[in-house]
Amino acid sequence: MTRVVAASRAADASANFGLVDTVAAFIADPTALGYFVPQGRRQTAEMALTGGPLLVAFENAWKAGSEKDRAARQEK
Q1: What span, in angstroms and rounded, lies between the C-alpha atoms of 18 and 55?
Q2: Average pLDDT in the 18-40 region?
Q3: What is the DSSP string of 5-70?
Q4: Single pTM value for the model
Q5: Count of C-beta atoms within a 10 Å radius of residue 24
Q6: Is-contact 52 46, C-beta < 8 A?
Q7: Cβ atoms of 31 and 13 closer than 8 Å
Q8: CA-to-CA distance for 24 and 26, rounded, in angstroms?
Q9: What is the pLDDT of residues 34-71, one digit of tens each?
């Protein structure tokens, strides 16, 4: 029984460390948070939907990644 409790506490501690690591990464490089800012009227309206902020962030991150890929291909 004590092994199960110890394993559970170890899992909780590692999960908390992952959360702290993620928050620290956002503080060090807040670029990812900028993806949540709507880029136009359509995205502003989408923010009101359930899960809308995640949809907006995903779309903006996708566009930014596509632009970086396109620029990298043109440099070759």
Answers
A1: 24
A2: 76
A3: HHHHHHHHHHHHHHHHHHHHHHHH-THHHHTTS--SHHHHHHTTSTTHHHHHHHHHHHHHHHHHHH
A4: 0.60
A5: 10
A6: yes
A7: no
A8: 5
A9: 888 999 999 999 999 999 999 999 999 999 989 888 88
